[in-house]
Amino acid sequence: MLPRVLLLSVFALTCAHGEDAVRPLIEHVQTHRDGRAAWSIDFAALGENRADLPIGVFDSGIGGLTVMEAILKLDAFGNDTLRPGADGRADFAGERFIYFGDQANMPYGNYPAKGRENFLRELIMKDAVFLLGTRWRPAPAVAPRFDKPPVKAIVIACNTATAYGLEDIRGALREWKLEVPVIGVVEAGARAVAASLPDDGKPHGVAVLATVGTCATGAYPKAIGRATGMAGKSAPVVVQQGSVELAGAIERGQLQAVIDYARSDVTTLAGTHRRAGGPPIDTVVLGCTHFPLAKAELAEAFRLAHGVDATAVAENVSFIDPADSTARELFRELARARLRRKSDTAAPRAQFFLSVPNPASPEAKLAADGSLDADYKASREVGRFEVEDTVAIPLTAETLPASSAKLVQSLTAVWQQVQAVRPQP
Ligand code: DGL
Predict the structure, then answer these.
(1) Relative to the CA of 290, which ligand 1 atom is closest?
(2) What is the fold, at CATH topology level, of the domain defined by 187-324?
(3) How far is the CA of 126 from the centre of ligand 1 (A)?
(4) Distances (CA, A) of 392 to 154, 352, 370
(5) What is the number of the ligand 1 atom nearest to the C-alpha of 160?
């Protein structure tokens, strides 16, 4: 038998990381089962015919739309046979979607370094609760409405949110007795790495570009180790680079800043790898959903880094975007849970929401550009559900922030859906 003191410390550790941070939200949802309160779920709306409900996808901003694009375009299975292999029909042709980007609270990746990991975990759970709930607002200063469809499955289209929140969300769903599949990008991305590595017995260098927060968890190195082991391949040398600024610059559409941050991050990464002395990096995981939107700038940065030191960076680097493998996992999971919606008649197929500061909140402190003030963002505490300092409002072609327009328009399947959204009566 384990000594009592050891048992107690295991218990304390489990509680410290496991539940404390999200316990208030789990209980808030339990006690507001009609879904009227902010961040609550109308359990009755999640009742019968789950398969007809939309699929929920969330991210800290617009970056997760790269995952949504991969989902909308996927044709890797037979729609009738469910077997692997394209059949010329989009695999999710009959499905509807709800996308949520928590733009008001981003960047998620910088909360942990400020000691706000618990608050981040609550934010991530709130994203899931928004998708599962019915509550939304047509505009920031307008009273809430309660007719958003809840979702039948959740895709965490954010690496940081997967690294910090996947287990919290799954645990909460178990407590709420809701059978809702949750798919995260990190495991899917790691499996894509394992599949892409040549089985040539040679050592390989894999770089993970992600947020500082994602890197701090070690989620990718662990998942890549597991996935290569499962695939019967030898584990690659994994080097991580946490990026403080790149996701924000992409979100704001600042091209020169994107080029500069991409170069400085890749230069730092190559230096770290050179000092550690691993095999040259030949595979790069775009471990932040925003980064596929800067693939050209990152590819150029790796080309330059190879020119500086070919022992650290290989001449040809292949990029892994976890989005495609996430989309495949979603298909398999819906098929397994018998949650696929078969009709091809869903139109419009998607609704998009973004969070913005709540103008009616007495607490929310704003910066000069109208966004939430950075110090205020990092000063908030968990469990204060009466403080609705951000609200989720629809994203349409008309309300799309100008800075994000070019990026969203480059995702053709997503853009088609955004344009099809009509304002609700
Ligand atoms: N979308 C997030 C991710 O994939 C990064 C952006 C952020 O820091 O909020 O990790």
Answers:
(1) 1
(2) Rossmann fold (3.40.50)
(3) 16
(4) 17, 10, 16
(5) 10
C-beta separation of 319 from 298 below 8 A: yes
- Counting residues of the chain whose pLDDT is more than 70, the rounded percentage is 94
For the CA of 60, the closest atom of ligand 1 is: 9
pTM above 0.85, yes or no: yes
Which pLDDT band, with edges at 50, 70 and 90, does 344 fall under?
Answer: low
104 vs 109: CA distance, rounded Å: 14
> 219-231 pLDDT, tens per residue?
999 999 999 999 9
Residue from 79, 134, 125, 91 nearest 105 by CA = 125
Ligand 1 pocket check for 106: Cβ under 6 Å? yes
Q: Is 19-181+340-420 in CATH node 3.40.50.1860?
A: yes
Q: How many whole angstroms from 208 Cα to the centroid of ligand 1?
A: 13
Tens of pLDDT along 267-286? 999 999 999 988 999 999 99
* Positions of CATH 3.40.50.1860 in the chain: 19-181+340-420, 187-324
The answer, yes or no, to whether any atom of ligand 1 lies below 6 A from the CB of 108, is: yes
SS3 30: helix
The pLDDT tens digits of the residues spanning 378-415 come to 999 999 998 899 999 999 888 888 878 888 999 999 99
Give the pLDDT confidence score for residue 423 in this predicted structure: 65
Q: State residue 402's pLDDT score.
A: 84
**Hey, is 87 helix, strand or coil?**
coil
DSSP 317-337: EEEE-HHHHHHHHHHHHHHHT
- Whether a cis peptide bond, with omega within 30° of 0, leads into 112 is no
Among 211, 218, 184, smallest CA distance to 287 is for 211
Please name the residue whose Cα sits nearest to atom 7 of ligand 1. Answer: 107
Measured by CA distance, the residue closest to atom 5 of ligand 1 is 288
